[in-house]
Design brief:
The protein has about 170 residues and is an alpha+beta fold. Helix content is about 30%, strand content about 40%.
């Protein structure tokens, strides 16, 4: 068999499969949030988003492309947006009052921080987090709760409203 005839048919296939893998790599559609109940009765919240996803969302919110690395206005707008989208409440009652602490860019991630004070650990906590989901329908927001060095996670997808984490499933007593 002539090797020169194989190359023209194989090479385009290799190039196309590589290009499709590159496009998938840019569509990360995933964020991670850590909710840490500290022993000093504070709740520390850290949201982590990929810059590429964050820039797509902020462009949609502000009506034009924004370079998050260069624009403090875009960073602040995204920080406000993320803070407005994240909600905690105790056992279907009043919301936990979260205070926005700030945001930063670290490598390929956009971070937004919040905090609150708690008086006691409830038996259950509800979470709602729809950030990016109206702009990126396949967006998944993973929320990791750390309580007394134990971690339990909830995954929130588009269309999810409130999800409940039952703390009595953890050894908190």
């Amino acid at each position: 068999m002539n090797k020169l005839l194989i190359l023209p048919t194989v090479l385009p296939t290799v190039i196309l499969s590589t290009m499709s893998n590159l496009s998938i790599a840019h569509q990360l559609q995933h964020a991670t949030t850590s909710v840490d109940f500290k022993s000093n009765y504070t709740i520390e919240v850290a949201h982590r988003f990929y810059i590429h996803d964050a820039e797509a969302v902020i462009a949609s919110l502000l009506g034009k492309h924004q370079d998050l690395l260069q624009s403090e206005q875009a960073q602040k707008a995204l920080c406000d947006y993320v803070s407005d989208q994240f909600h905690l409440r105790y056992q279907e009652s009043e919301p936990v009052l979260l205070r926005k602490v700030g945001c930063e860019i670290e490598g390929k991630y956009f971070w937004a921080y919040q905090e609150a004070v708690y008086e006691y650990l409830p038996r259950a906590i509800d979470v709602k987090f729809e950030a990016f989901q109206e702009k990126i329908p396949k967006q998944v927001n993973l929320v990791n709760f750390r309580i007394y060095q134990q971690v339990q996670s909830l995954e929130l997808k588009t269309g999810d409203k409130w999800k409940t984490l039952k703390l009595n499933d953890l050894n908190v007593d």
